[in-house]
Amino acid sequence: xxxxxxxxxxxxxTRGQQVTLSCSPISGHRSVSWYQQTPGQGxxxxxxxFSETQRNKGNFPGRFSGRQFSNxxxxxxxxxxELGDSALYxxxxxxxxxxxxxxxxxxxxxxxx
Amino acid sequence: GQxxxxxxxxxxxxxxEDVSMNCTSSSIFNTWLWYKQDPGEGPVLLIALYKxxxxxxxxxxxxxxxxxxxxxxxxxxxxxxxxxxIYFCAGQLPGAGSYQLTFGKGTKLSVIP
Lengths: 113, 113
What we know:
Chain A is mainly β. Chain A contains no helices and eleven strands. In chain A, strands 2, 4, 5, 6, 9, 10 and 11 form a seven-stranded mixed β-sheet that branches. In chain A, strands 1-3-8-7 form a four-stranded antiparallel β-sheet, with no helix packed on it. In chain A, strand 7 and strand 8 (74-78) form a beta hairpin. In chain A, 38% of the residues are buried. Chain B is mainly beta. In chain B, 0% of the residues lie in helices and 51% in strands. Chain B has no helices and eleven strands. In chain B, the strands form two sheets. In chain B, strands 2, 4, 5, 9, 10 and 11 form a six-stranded mixed β-sheet that branches. In chain B, a hairpin with a 6-residue loop joins strand 4 (31-37) and strand 5 (44-49). Chain B is globular, with a radius of gyration of 14 Å. At the A-B interface, strand 4, strand 5 and strand 10 of A face strand 4, strand 5, strand 9 and strand 10 of B.
């Protein structure tokens, strides 16, 4: 069974641009969560989607948004990029009813110049 | 937001030694998880704990869910070079609609051959 797949693995953008990251969950997993990982703040929760609906949102500005498609694939978008948005963005998927057990992808490394 | 205090921050040990790390919180958690992250990769789930007092093993790894539900520890016995990496504890807070995980800052393990 394939794991969580995130694309692209690496991205370089400049301030003010926007970016879209993609996540394909493990087959059969309908819950997708996104996290931001930085050396200073560690892993911080961004949002969680289930059946195309956002159920939880972390404490991030509105520039961070996401969506989920009917096949459970998810995207997150960051608009008006800032230098501080440079981070590893991780996607995790879980089974419905077992959202406490999350399996992570390898992440997308975003560098904002 | 909620914080998990993970210690130690880093450890240097000789191959063959046993390792112990722990996580504490001021809040009660429903689930405790332990992950390992290698450079450039996403966290990999090692052990999941669901009940206060639960003790679970996975090969040379043993983890326990504290009786108070506010702490957990992870032990690694007879360490080997491939144990090198960053170990994270994570927990799920109780409450309906709580689908996010809260993470500790990690313990960086170095194994000296």
